[in-house]
DNA sequence: GCCAACGTTGGC
DNA sequence: GCCAACGTTGGC
């Protein structure tokens, strides 16, 4: 089993929105970055654990945990002209973009803030805290996962 | 294949 | 709203 971190803007779709979905499950569409796409398509497996990270908001940090319920499949929004994720250059015979389904698992009592994460020397190598990192789907090591869980309490 | 221009991300 | 950092595009 592997660990991941998915970024999301809670103003658009946050952990509370996931909780309110039927079966507390939602497809993670709209990822339009090739490196993140490769993770979604090739590497993220059923049962993998995911930190939900809230970005671009007043409380930036990890909000809780979700679990992968369905492995990579074609993100249909790339073919929908009405979707903001529409990609006219994507060929239906060879789709560019993929997504997975995740189910809510746990919400932290408090957001585990980016500030706290950055302040922990043991997490200095996390991809999340590297300068200029913009990946919206990234791997988390088992060691990092354990430390973060302990910090979340 | 290079690289300037552009658009986007995301913390602050 | 600012702006640094990055990925993508497209002319050459």
From TrEMBL:
The answer to whether the entry has keyword Lipoprotein is no
Q: Which InterPro entries match?
A: 5hmC_binding, EVE_domain, PUA-like_sf, THYN1-like_EVE
Keywords, alphabetical: Phosphoprotein
Does this entry carry the keyword Transport? no
Q: Which domain of life is it from?
A: Bacteria
Name all EVE domain ranges: 2-151
Name recorded for this polypeptide: EVE domain-containing protein
Organism of provenance: Bowmanella dokdonensis
């Amino acid at each position: 089993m592997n660990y991941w971190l998915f970024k999301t803007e809670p103003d658009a779709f946050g952990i509370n929105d996931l909780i309110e979905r039927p079966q507390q499950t939602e497809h993670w569409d709209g990822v339009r970055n090739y490196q993140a796409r490769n993770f979604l398509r090739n590497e993220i497996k059923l049962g993998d654990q995911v930190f939900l990270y809230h970005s671009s908001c007043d409380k930036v940090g990890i909000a809780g945990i979700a679990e992968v319920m369905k492995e990579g499949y074609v993100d249909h929004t790339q073919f929908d002209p009405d979707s903001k994720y529409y990609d006219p250059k994507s060929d239906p015979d060879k789709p560019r973009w993929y997504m997975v389904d995740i189910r809510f698992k746990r919400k932290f009592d408090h957001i585990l803030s980016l500030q706290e994460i950055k302040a922990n020397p043991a997490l200095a190598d996390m991809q999340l805290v590297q300068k200029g990192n913009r990946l919206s789907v990234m791997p988390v090591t088992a060691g990092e996962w354990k430390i973060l869980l302990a910090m979340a309490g």
